[in-house]
């Protein structure tokens, strides 16, 4: 009897993992406890050993794919058996010892091959009244159970699909198969036929109000892929997924406004040129970044609302009395922001050394998770590859981020004459929920004063 | 005005069997060849058990598990020196204490499979269950030791904890009580160099953990925790001392956790390979095997027999564990108190009523795995 081996909770409360690679192929013989796959969870990369001796009949998923805890990973049987023979059903599939595996219990059967429809009688009733075929609905509830919401969403989709008949208002020139934003060709639909759609989903169009279910959007997108063909789908995962989640969180939480200015850093450039070689002998690469970080912290001291966060749960502004500066580092895998702690308590030389070490560690991906947490303000170098100004995205839950541009020689006017000076641009994005424009400008001005007149750093020395 | 020296202290480290399998004859414990083989079998049993448990966890057949790889000698060596009437208070990496003291292996699998009944042992086995809270075990052991003396029993209590627990107030308070009242207790610290990811160097500025006992007025000794003979010998002496009414001992078993903290940890993130390789050369089982082979006690045939027996013992225990009837969800109320408190009795009643309302209650056979600090 073939055994459907489900991906267990290999961590502690792990819900999914990414398949790194298969260690065996379909048709291979396998011994009990022999590793069959390597899977990366949020905790570690782990080897998953086979629960029994036999033959690998089927492997589910490709490297790079996300596997949910409780989904079948492999079917293992005896030679001559086929994977289909096992026909996993929610009650009989569980592998070795269903009762003893908290993971398989907690997750229930989410096996893709299950045919049974899981829904409560009241949901079934709702489906009948909305004319929804439950066998076509994917359940999102526990163990794949179909919820009332699933039925309502399915109903909304079918309503929209139906109303997109050739006789609807699609302009004849538009290729009917191409993807369009739902509101572009929207026929007016009455809200009453689409129960429980959130008001946020309502989009004003010239044709009137069209209510769009989020699912409808997804459905029509899928249609487009089918017809166009030449696209590649790359799973959003790992660092990219983390960056994506955090960017979305930031953009949907903070009200972001960017203030831009320019500063004459000629004196700073001269100072650095003068001290650079001395530092090099000590193995320290003196960049502008420690100066900029110091200038920021000097200004943050006087503008506590820029060194803050908002506690949404209590509706309080949290002013931070410590100054941990995040430093955006570009790595091969994506953007990582390690944290330099207590910048106010360190000298420029110490900062230079620390930044050098931490940037290298980050690029080599040797940075520990602890070093990526707890920043109160972030600096990002937007000019290293080119460009003048940018609109950096706040490193939530912080409330401000400073982008610095490339230092370039430019003609500027001084005492009525055109002279050549070293100029640097800055772009400060701030959270307008707690910081107003005037304050952001005052704050930026203080940073610029330090960068323009590095003698001020000396005056700050304790 | 004067500045006078009041006291002078020294801390010792005991090691008998070195990494090459050579022994210091003068320090050898009195163990017969049969006992040496038995000791070796316990180590192999534990090792095979440990490897199997890791596999079972990765197959979803038990919950989160803490491997004892590299530390086998610490638990086997100490437990082998005990008398049946002695009381043990393990933390959570002391599988070897349970099994060496005679608790069936199936119980240990049950515990790690989330079945609390695994902690229930024969009434004459003085083994307390696994206690996850860091540093609680010394308190329990000292309390038990004082109770044993009060009851005029010839039993010593043994509390196990790790290097991390030595920074806990509970551990230090327990040591203070042990010293003040000369409790018949042995406090066994498995210093495996890591409290999850926190290295020993950040745990205390003190050079050794053993010397902490000095502050409380009793003896502490560091022992090579990868040397089963030294562990046995130090434990034997500490137990005899306690039994003779001469007070407590702190044993710092200097060892290294070869695996992750638990199956929910990835130790490659916080320690380097070189260190691991250094410690691999100090493997407690390999060096004991080298020694036993050299003195002719262990032959290849005997070695194979012991290994085969261990493998089949583990397989039988796994089978027994997996065919065990499911525990009842209401069990969670039943093992804390001999008699339920009124609040718990009421909660149990409500819970049972809730269970009968939930139609699939009977299928919820297993609980969550144990939680970790």
If you had to describe this structure to a student in words, what would you say it looks like?
The complex is a heterodimer of chains A (462) and B (373). With 462 residues, chain A is α+β, with helices and mostly antiparallel strands. Chain A has 3 domains: 3-107, Beta Barrel (OB fold (Dihydrolipoamide Acetyltransferase, E2P)); 121-164 and 177-228, E3-binding domain (Dihydrolipoamide Transferase), CATH 4.10.320.10; 240-460, Chloramphenicol acetyltransferase-like domain (Chloramphenicol Acetyltransferase, 2-Layer Sandwich), CATH 3.30.559.10. Helices cover 28% and strands 23% of the residues of chain A. Chain A contains 10 helices and 21 strands. Chain A has helices spanning 102-107, 121-130, 148-163, 214-228, 238-251, 266-281, 289-302, 348-363, 437-452, 455-460; strands at residues 3-6, 16-22, 29-30, 35-40, 45-49, 54-59, 66-68, 72-77, 202-205, 208-211, 256-264, 308-311, 316-319, 325-327, 329-331, 334-336, 339-340, 377-381, 400-404, 408-414, 417-431. In chain A, the strands form 6 sheets. In chain A, strands 11, 14, 17, 18, 19, 20 and 21 form a 7-stranded mixed β-sheet that branches. In chain A, strands 1-8-6-3 form a 4-stranded antiparallel β-sheet, with no helix packed on it. Chain A is elongated, with a radius of gyration of 29 Å. The relative contact order of chain A is 0.08. Residues 85-114 and 162-214 of chain A have low confidence and may be disordered. By secondary structure, chain B is of the alpha/beta class. Chain B has 2 domains: 12-322, Thiamin diphosphate (ThDP)-binding fold, Pyr/PP domains (Rossmann fold), CATH 3.40.50.970; 329-363, no CATH class. A 6-stranded parallel β-sheet of chain B has the order 1-7-8-4-3-2, with helices on both faces. In chain B, strand 5 and strand 6 form a beta hairpin. The termini of chain B are far apart. Classes of the chains: A alpha+beta (462), B alpha/beta (373). Chains A and B meet through strand 5 and helix 1 of A and helix 1 of B.
